[in-house]
Design brief:
- This protein is an alpha/beta fold and 668 residues long.
- The chain is built from 25 helices and 23 strands.
- Helix 18 runs antiparallel to helix 19 and helix 22 packs across helix 23.
- It is globular, with a radius of gyration of 34 Å.
- The protein starts with a helix and ends with a helix.
């Protein structure tokens, strides 16, 4: 009975006695002084009993440990007392130190009151969960004073029955010299960088030779001044490309100031007021110099595919992005479009069949691009199939229109049918995305050996690697614009159906928000081509006119909007909402004169989705990439299948706050 009572009050002792004292205080407030005195006496007796019991039990454990320590022959000098390493024994359940040798006492700097102290009183934040999980080595180095230790341990039970306790024996191995050497190697590990002037042609266009020399000298000066602090090597490889080799510790400084060179280089401007911009690729990690250079080259490719004016740090496992606030400059050439069109056409002819697919929850741009490419596949004389999920698309009306055409009989199939049809000679063309996890059928993407990509979004950290053909132009307004350019070189006007022309024009209209965002000369040229082959603007407009229910829902979303931050609106809708409706609401919200960016959070199939829009002053892609989303400078999204709208809203709010803080630091 005595043991059971002791165990009952031992669990959560401090909290138990505090609760008892609160009851005593409550009794006093009620004016029952006699009862309060009796309660206080009982609490004191219980506390005295507990302390005596605890000391007696600690003494028993300590005696057990000492008997164990001295059980080995003194001549062997292998007992715990004479063990050369600092050693301690603690109770696993309470964290109480029950014994230690002189080496550990000297190490801790406490020669008195060490026994019965809690381990965290000696080592702040020390966690013993690792030994309870059966591990023999602490997963992190422990700092004590100016020295660092690896901690080894094992767990035993003292005695038998109710009085027994789990004891952990910990051995402390001094690894300070090793850690210092390891830190030195980490700090001095080589890092390879490639710096590219990604606006070189535009910057030098029309400038005199003297002015070109001045601009080049200014850029060289900015780069060398920035790199000087790293004490590395900067060498100019070509007129617009530099090689930068430095040490790992300098990379920490560069990332801390978000690669300030990206902002300072904007001070260099040509006579027309165009600022210089840089793309920086960095390769880091435990790799050879050749591998680091390859990582840096991949970083440059990633930076350019995301619009340039940013730094990308590539390691073996991940990409890190810095900068990327500038709008893309339109600098595509028709030569490249013609070459890519001919290469894609030849690839189609060499294939047994062509599968076309866009991203999950397809829209007018992805379906329109696929429909345009169907015309090219017909010209190549190969069967074409578009993979689509009819239950998860915002282009249902367009799909229904296409299915009515005799040329589209059997063209639209689901994922299972596509995998059955696929063979070794099949070609898969992915439109409007480069992320393998976002395509309509990831299984088909893995099954097909030859893949082509047509996309205009800024590339994410995950992307389709080693495609046979990649037409990835972030300067384009839409995937439909790119496809329309390709078709001009490989098909005749009569080879394109009117409904296919309507589909591509609808995709351009969608992504440019009615030709108001991200429209260049090439956008209007592609649209003019589509008009020539029969695209009807009235029919296109009808694809965007929803029913009364859709209009009501859209304006409900708009009515929920609040200016969460200056110039940033946020609308949260708990119930499930069609993606097209939410996107249209976000488009409407940024039309307000004082709104720079709009975010709509809404429910979908038990989870939540975020749709973001801006006119470019705020980079919504950078905001949503912080929480696992992606997209482009002016249009982006993110999905949370297992989170409520309130949880998603909280995550989004933190991401916006972080983005705004970063912008404030850059502005200072």
């Amino acid at each position: 009975m005595d043991k059971r009572f002791s165990r009952m009050i031992e669990s959560g002792t401090k909290l138990t006695f505090v609760a008892m004292l609160l009851f005593v205080a409550a009794t006093c407030l009620k004016g029952h002084w006699g009862l309060a005195a009796a309660e206080l006496l009982l609490v004191v007796l219980l506390f005295v009993y507990y302390r005596r019991r605890s000391k007696r039990r600690s003494a028993e454990i300590r005696k057990y440990v000492e008997n164990l320590a001295f059980s080995v022959d003194d001549a062997s000098k292998q007992s715990l007392v004479n063990f050369p390493l600092p050693t301690m024994i603690l109770r696993v359940d309470s964290g109480e130190i029950v014994w230690c040798n002189e080496s550990f006492a000297a190490l801790s700097g406490r020669t008195d009151n060490l026994f019965e102290s809690h381990i965290t009183d000696v080592l702040h934040g020390f966690d013993t969960r690792w030994i309870m999980e059966g591990k023999s080595l602490c997963p992190y180095d422990v700092q004590m004073g100016e020295r660092r230790y690896q901690v080894y341990g094992n767990m035993v039970r003292s005695g038998k029955g109710h009085g027994s306790a789990l004891l952990a024996t910990l051995f402390w191995v001094d690894v300070t010299d090793y850690c210092q050497l390891r830190d030195y190697v980490e700090r001095t590990r080589p890092v390879v960088g490639i710096i590219l002037i990604d606006s070189y042609e535009e910057l030098m266009k029309g400038a005199s030779e003297a002015r070109k020399s001045t601009l080049t000298a200014d850029i060289d000066r900015h780069i060398n001044d920035w790199a000087k602090s790293a004490q590395g090597i900067v060498r100019k490889l070509e007129r617009d490309r530099y090689l930068f080799i430095f040490e790992q510790h300098s990379l920490v400084d560069f990332t801390a100031d978000k690669f300030s060179i990206l902002e300072s280089i904007h001070e260099v401007q040509n006579n027309e007021g165009l600022s210089a911009t840089l793309s920086i690729g960095i390769g880091k990690g435990e790799c050879s110099l050749r591998e680091l250079y390859q990582f840096a080259a991949l970083g440059i490719d990633m930076a350019l595919s995301r619009g340039g004016d940013q730094a990308v740090v590539k390691s073996k496992t991940a990409f890190e992005f810095y900068g990327g606030r500038s709008k893309e400059l339109e600098k595509r050439t028709k030569v490249k479009s013609r070459v890519m069109a001919n290469a894609l056409m030849q690839l189609m002819r060499d294939s047994s069949q062509v599968f076309l697919m866009g991203h999950k929850y397809s829209d007018l741009d992805s379906i329109g691009a696929c429909a345009g490419l169907v015309a090219a596949v017909r010209k190549a004389g190969r069967p074409a199939y578009i993979i689509v999920n009819d239950k998860a698309t915002s282009a249902k009306e367009l799909i229904d229109r296409l299915k009515k055409q005799p040329q589209y009989e059997g063209v639209f199939i689901n994922e299972e049918e596509a995998i059955i049809k696929a063979d070794a000679s099949s070609l898969c063309v992915v439109c409007d995305t480069t992320r393998p996890d976002m395509v309509e059928s990831p299984s088909l993407l893995d099954a097909v050996q030859r893949v082509a990509v047509v996309d205009h979004h800024r590339r994410a950290a995950q992307y389709i690697e080693n495609p046979a053909i990649s037409l990835h132009e972030t300067y384009a307004s839409s995937a439909c614009e790119l496809v329309a350019e390709l078709l001009q070189y490989v098909v005749n006007h009569s080879d394109i159906l009117k409904v296919e022309a309507d589909a591509m024009l609808a995709g351009i209209f969608l992504d440019t928000k009615g030709f108001t965002v991200k429209t260049g000369v090439r956008t209007f040229e592609a649209s003019a081509f589509l008009r020539q082959v029969g695209a009807d603007t009235v029919e296109v407009r009808k694809m965007f006119s929803g029913g009364l229910e859709t209009s009501v829902k859209k304006y409900q979303i708009i009515s929920c909007a609040k200016e969460q931050f200056p110039g940033i609106s946020l609308s949260v809708v708990d119930e499930e909402t069609p993606r097209a409706t939410a996107s249209q609401a976000a488009d409407e919200l940024i039309n307000a004169s004082d709104i720079k960016a709009a975010f709509v959070v809404y429910g979908e199939k038990g989870g939540s989705v975020i749709s973001a829009r801006s006119y470019g002053e705020i980079n919504v892609q950078v905001v949503l990439e912080k929480i696992g989303g992606g997209g482009g400078l002016t249009s982006a999204g993110a999905q949370f299948p297992d989170k409520s709208t309130d949880e998603a809203c909280e995550i989004l709010t933190h991401a916006i706050e972080e983005y705004l803080r970063d912008q404030e630091k850059k502005a200072q």
